[in-house]
């Protein structure tokens, strides 16, 4: 399927690895020029070169802390008129809410709620004026089914979800869509660290937890980041203009509900 994205420009955050990288690569394969962001310059530059080599599109790597105003300004100066924005930030650490202080909550809200909102604020008017825009927020399946040890993430990402629900209905008439992608368990570094933490809490091996988690999934496996990237690219395409304000779950059937 031709998504009619060739020549478009995208900002993809958290793109040095994992799901962010998968989204950047999938968009590049559709001919989208990229500005990719992450904190680690070395890993980001390696990813940028890999995507250039595989796809031939223009890729600008901007190493910056996207949770700061200066970091956002740096990214937006490299791509002041994006057609596509993919927000993505590593989730806060797991744990017991009794252990978290005020700063832990502020950090979670900055990364997983406020930063996406500020980025959207910076690009939404231009997208509306050009009558094309696709905003994808990578959140978590925990928005639908909260995970007890991920309380910081549950709270912050749910706040973003509520904000998007209101805004998306105001921009649809301008061909600007805003959707949230809710990943379940995908083969990423984040998954590995979460499983390690859970295994330590239970006093068992990480491999045992990994096997049990896979067996508990209807798909009996974890997701491939490339699957996630392809779904992101479709939602950015011209054919997806009638999909907005949605929380789209990619979890291999793990969520047991009908809604």
Automatic annotation (TrEMBL):
Alphabetized Pfam families for the sequence: adh_short_C2
Organism: Marinobacterium lutimaris
PANTHER family reported for this sequence: 3-OXOACYL-(ACYL-CARRIER-PROTEIN) REDUCTASE, NADPH-DEPENDENT REDUCTASE BACG
Highest taxon of source: Bacteria
Protein's name in the database: 3-oxoacyl-[acyl-carrier protein] reductase
InterPro entries on file: NAD(P)-bd_dom_sf (IPR036291), SDR (IPR050259), SDR_fam (IPR002347)
CDD domains: BKR_like_SDR_like
Family: Belongs to the short-chain dehydrogenases/reductases (SDR) family.
């Amino acid at each position: 399927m031709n998504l009619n994205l060739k020549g478009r420009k995208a900002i993809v955050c958290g793109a040095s690895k994992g799901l962010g990288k998968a989204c950047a690569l999938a968009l590049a394969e559709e001919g989208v020029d990229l500005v990719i962001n992450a904190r680690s310059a070395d890993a980001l530059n390696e990813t940028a070169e890999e995507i250039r080599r595989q796809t031939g599109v223009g890729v600008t790597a901007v190493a910056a802390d996207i949770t700061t105003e200066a970091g956002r300004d740096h990214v937006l100066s490299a791509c002041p008129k994006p057609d596509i924005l993919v927000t993505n930030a590593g989730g806060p650490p797991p744990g017991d809410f009794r252990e978290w202080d005020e700063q832990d909550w502020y950090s979670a809200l900055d990364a997983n709620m406020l930063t996406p909102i500020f980025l959207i604020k910076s690009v939404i008017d231009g997208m509306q004026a050009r009558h094309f825009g696709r905003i994808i927020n990578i959140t978590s399946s925990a928005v639908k089914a909260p995970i007890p040890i991920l309380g910081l993430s549950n709270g912050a990402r749910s706040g973003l979800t509520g904000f998007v629900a209101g805004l998306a209905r105001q921009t649809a008439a301008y061909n600007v869509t805003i959707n949230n992608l809710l990943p379940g368990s995908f083969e990423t570094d984040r998954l590995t660290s979460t499983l390690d933490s859970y295994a330590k809490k239970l006093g068992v091996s990480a491999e045992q937890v990994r096997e049990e988690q896979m067996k508990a999934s209807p798909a009996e496996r974890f997701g491939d980041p490339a699957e996630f990237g392809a779904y992101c690219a479709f939602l950015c395409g011209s054919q997806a203009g009638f999909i907005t304000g949605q929380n789209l779950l990619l979890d291999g059937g793990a969520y047991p509900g009908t809604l």
